[in-house]
Write a structure and sequence with these properties.
With about 400 residues, the chain is an alpha/beta fold. It folds into 2 domains: about 130 residues, Aspartate Aminotransferase, domain 1, CATH 3.90.1150.10; about 250 residues, 3-Layer(aba) Sandwich (Aspartate Aminotransferase, domain 2), CATH 3.40.640.10. The protein contains 12 helices and 13 strands. An 8-stranded mixed β-sheet has the order 2-8-7-6-5-3-4-13, with helices on both faces. The protein has a 3-stranded antiparallel β-sheet with strand order 9-10-12. Strand 6, helix 7 and strand 7 form a beta-alpha-beta unit. Helix 1 packs antiparallel against helix 8, helix 3 packs parallel to helix 4 and helix 5 packs parallel to helix 6. The longest helix is centred in the middle third of the chain and has 39 residues. The protein is globular, with a radius of gyration of 22 Å.
Length: about 400
C-alpha cells in the first residue's frame, strides 16, 4: 500500500466542512456591526440570532438567549470560574469548588487560580477507566464529611479529550443540585459526537467550541441556565446581555451556526459510523501489536476516540514515525504539546509515567474511511516492533495497574 495522508487528530481540531466554508465566503459581505441600529446592522444581527438558535438546538436548549457567544472553550470555561470567584468573595458565601483530576488544562488552571486565592478546591480522582466515583462526589459535597464548607461549583468534563471517557452528567448535576451547588460541564468534545439534552442533564453552565465541530476557530459559546449568575470576563459594551463585551465576530458566529445545524442533522449516522471505525481500529491494533493497554472506558466512551499505550515505545517517537508515513495522531491533548510531563489524564487513571509516555490518541472524524484505518493497521505494527527493539523501557503493562487518586487543594 502506497503512502497516503491519514488525519486522526480530530479531537485537536477539525477541518472546515465544505458547506461551512462556502457559507462563510458568502457571509464576508455581512460586514456591518451587529450592534448597529441601521438596516445593515439589523441584517447582521438577524443572522447572528439565527446562529444562536442553531447552537441552542445542538444541545437541546429551548431558550436561545441562554447561549452566549465567546472566543472559544477556554474563554467560556474561564467565564464560569470568574463568576464563581466573584460570588465566593462575598462574606459568608459558599466557596468550595469541586472538579476532577482529568479536566482540560484551562479548567485545571482556572481552579488552581481560585485555590491560590484561598478557595477550597477538590480535584476528584477517577477509576482506571477515567470515571469519577459518585460516592467520592457525594462525600465532597457533604460539609460534615469533607473540608471546605458548602460547595459553590461542581465542574466536570462531559467527555474527556484524551481518552474519550464519558461522565454521567445527569447524576453529577443532580447530586450538585441537591447540595445547593452550581454545575458546569466542559462539553467541547461531546458536542456533535453524542446527544446532549441540556434539560435532562440539568447543568447550569455548558461550554462549546466551534472548531471541534467542523467550524471556524476563534468562536465558542457558553450556555447559562436562566437564573444562573454570570459575571463578565471581558467588560465593555452591552453585547451578549452585558456578559461578554466586544464587537460580534460575524463570520465566526455565522459559521458556528451552520456547523451546529449540520452536526445535529448528521449526529446519529456520524456516531454509528465512527463507532464502527473505532472498533475496527481497536481490534486491529490488538491483533497486530502484542502487549498493549486500551485507555478509557470500554463502553461509555466517545465513538471516535481510541487511546492506546504501547509499553516499550516512546510516544513522541511513535508519533514522528507515523508522521513520516503520512499518519497524523497525538500523544495527548494538543494544548499540552511541548510539555515533557506525562499526561495528567493517564496518570490519574493509574497508568505509570513510562506507560503514559508511550500512549497515542487516535481521534477519527468525518473524513476518516475504512481504508485509512487499514493503512494505520498496516504501518503501525512494524513501527512499534522497531521502537521496542531500540528501547530500554520494559515492554509490559504489568507495572501499570489502575489506581484511584484524590488530590485536593485546601485553605
Amino acid at each position: 500500500m502506497e503512502n497516503r495522508f491519514v488525519y486522526m487528530d480530530y479531537n485537536a481540531t477539525t477541518p472546515l466542512r465544505d458547506e461551512v466554508k462556502a457559507s462563510m465566503i458568502e457571509d464576508l459581505d455581512v460586514y456591518a456591526n451587529a450592534s448597529s441600529m441601521h438596516e445593515a446592522g439589523r441584517r447582521a444581527r438577524d443572522r447572528v440570532e439565527k446562529a444562536r438558535v442553531a447552537v441552542a438546538a445542538l444541545i437541546g436548549a429551548r431558550d436561545p438567549q441562554s447561549i452566549l457567544f465567546t472566543s472559544g472553550g477556554s474563554e467560556s470555561n474561564n467565564t464560569v470560574f470568574n463568576t464563581m470567584y466573584d460570588l465566593g468573595r462575598s462574606p459568608g458565601a459558599r466557596r468550595k469548588i469541586i472538579t476532577t483530576a482529568i479536566e482540560h488544562p484551562c479548567v485545571m488552571n482556572a481552579a488552581r487560580r481560585l485555590a491560590d486565592e484561598g478557595f477550597p478546591v477538590a480535584f476528584l480522582g477517577v477509576d482506571g477507566d477515567g470515571r469519577i466515583d459518585m460516592r467520592d462526589l457525594e462525600r465532597e459535597l457533604d460539609p460534615s464529611r469533607s473540608q471546605g464548607g458548602p460547595t459553590l461549583l461542581v465542574s466536570v468534563m462531559a467527555a474527556n479529550n484524551e481518552i474519550g471517557t464519558l461522565q454521567d452528567m445527569k447524576a453529577i448535576a443532580a447530586a450538585a443540585k441537591a447540595a445547593g451547588a452550581f454545575t458546569h460541564t466542559d462539553a467541547v468534545q461531546a458536542a456533535g459526537k453524542i446527544t446532549i439534552d441540556i434539560a435532562s442533564w440539568g447543568v447550569d453552565y455548558l461550554t462549546l467550541s466551534c472548531h471541534k465541530i467542523y467550524g471556524p476557530k476563534g468562536v465558542g459559546a457558553l450556555y447559562v441556565r436562566k437564573g444562573a449568575p454570570a459575571e463578565p470576563l471581558i467588560r465593555g459594551g452591552h453585547q451578549e446581555l452585558g456578559i461578554r463585551a466586544g464587537t460580534y465576530n460575524n463570520q465566526g458566529i455565522l459559521g458556528f451556526g451552520l456547523a451546529a445545524e449540520l452536526a445535529l442533522r448528521d449526529l446519529g449516522g456520524f456516531a454509528k459510523r465512527l463507532s464502527g471505525l473505532r472498533r475496527r481500529l481497536k481490534e486491529g491494533i490488538a491483533a497486530g501489536v502484542p502487549d498493549i493497554r486500551i485507555n478509557g472506558h470500554p463502553s461509555e466512551v466517545l465513538p471516535n476516540t481510541l487511546n492506546v499505550s504501547f509499553p516499550g515505545a516512546e510516544g513522541e517517537a511513535i508519533l514522528l514515525s507515523l508522521d513520516l508515513e503520512g499518519i497524523e495522531v497525538s500523544t495527548g491533548s494538543a494544548c499540552a504539546s511541548g510539555s515533557l510531563e506525562p499526561s495528567h489524564v493517564l496518570m490519574a487513571t493509574g497508568v505509570g509515567p513510562e506507560l503514559a509516555h508511550g500512549s497515542i490518541r487516535f481521534s477519527m472524524g468525518r473524513g476518516t474511511a475504512e481504508e485509512d484505518v487499514d493503512y494505520v493497521l498496516e504501518r503501525l505494527p512494524p513501527i512499534i516492533k522497531r521502537l521496542r527493539r531500540m528501547s530500554t523501557v520494559p515492554s509490559s503493562t504489568s507495572a501499570a495497574a489502575p489506581a484511584k487518586t484524590l488530590a485536593a487543594c485546601r485553605d
